[in-house]
Amino acid sequence: MSDIFNYLVISVCLISGYTLLVSIFNVFYFKKPKLLKPKSNKKISIIVPCRNEEKNILKCVDSLLEQDYQNVEIILVDDNSSDRTWYLINNLSKNNKNIKSIKGAELPNNWRGKNWACHQGFNSTRGNYLLFMDADTKLTKFAVSSGIYQLENDNLEFLSLVPNRKINNIVDFFIWSMVSFFIFSWIPLFLAKKSPYSFFAAGFGQYLLFTRESYEKIDGHKSIKNLLLDDFELARRIKYVGFNSSIFNGTDLVETEGYSTSANAIDGHGKTIFAAFRYNILIFLFAFTSLLLLFYVPFLNLFSFILGIELYDRHLFFSFMSVIFMFLTCFISTKSFSLPIKSPFFYPISMIVLLFSGYRSFLSSFDGQIEWKGRSTPVINFNKIYRIIFFPILVLYWVYRKIR
Fold first, then answer.
1. Rounded distance, CA 55 to CA 39, Å?
2. Which residue of 190, 255, 281, 288 shows the fewest CB atoms closer than 10 Å?
3. Could you please report the per-residue DSSP string of 305-343?
4. Distance between CA atoms of residues 374 and 376, nearest Å
């Protein structure tokens, strides 16, 4: 048993060191787009799906109308909203010839709502370039032109910008800190760009820029119609087909609104975490367990030493180095994503919050209890054996729902 623990402590230190090396390496490749206008003036179609976005859509469209790139058409798709969204976007289209509003049709079977809205929007486009973005997102003046410039200059078919996130609550702060950590420290960006494997692909729904040819070649949102994470899935499709793609630091160009409350943040992130594993229970549980070991074995060893429990010197050394490596990695990732400088000091708490939201995501797949904008997350028909195995977790989940 001591040999197993010895290997575990060393493995945790090595993996922590790997994350630090990757994050340092990525600093040199996580570049911001150049603020230059492209040589061509090809039309770009900006498609914005809107579901219950009356609080955000006007600010979003205002930012689009202020772009320095002129050859733009804006397609606003109402995704069966229950608020004043349709009224607002319909008025916008009446007052501006470059804006078109679409009253979305009823959601068909086997389609996710956002994918269906984007698909309808695409069918009304005429642009050589297609930009899909969220309605709670604002672009600075040069976001469109610099994106197109980078696409043409680097001979890319797909480009995504990492947004700056407006943090409104403590849970969103914790979870987004960890999201930045994973994106920046696990996959070398140079490898992600050059590798043909779709596993290394990434995209951000706030800014997904395609050439029309590449979007049509992968069959667009229709190819992922029943999948929840449209941004990552489309990026994977682009990579799988063989198109050139890249992600850039867009924190100066793209701003997205964070979740308004901590409860919304848990549910908002919860609807996507299990989906990121394509609802594969074994892979999810492996990742969950691995993160527990990676983040907390070093702290358990250090606390044991403080409490007077005798440890091998090598265990103490490797645990201390693991904590240092993880702190530095979090520091680099949060700086790169323009997050508050205090973020690295809270990374153990941030991971706990992320893991809780992940299990919330997992458990909701039993009963579809997470609702987002009036729609439930997909329900997976697990075998009853899983209910028995995870009965204690289900009880905790029931208590959480009662006190929430």
1. 36
2. 190
3. HHTT----HHHHHHHHHHHHHHHHHHHHHHHHTT--TTG
4. 7
Strand locations in 174-320 (E): 208-211, 245-249, 254-257
What does the DSSP 8-state code read for residue 138?
E
Q: What percent of the chain has pLDDT over 70?
A: 89
Q: What is the mean pLDDT of residues 78-83?
A: 92
Pull the structure tokens for residue 265.
């943040």
**Nearest residue to 105 via CA among 123, 118, 117, 91:** 117
CB 95 within 8 A of CB 110: no
Residues facing residue 101 across a β-bridge: 76
Kindly list the domain boundaries of the chain, sorted by start residue. Answer: 2-25+265-403, 29-169+186-261
User: What is the residue whose two structure tokens read 């969220």?
Assistant: 134
The helix/strand/coil state of 294 is helix
Please report which residue ranges of 96-169 form alpha helices under DSSP H.
113-122, 143-153
For the stretch 194-244, pLDDT in tens is 776 676 778 889 999 999 999 999 999 999 998 888 888 999 899 888 899
Q: What is the pLDDT of residue 393?
A: 61
Exposure pattern of 307-317 as b/e (b: 16+ CB <10 Å)?
eeeeeeeebbe
CATH class of domain segment(s) 29-169+186-261: alpha beta
CA R_g for the chain: 22
150-162: average pLDDT:
94
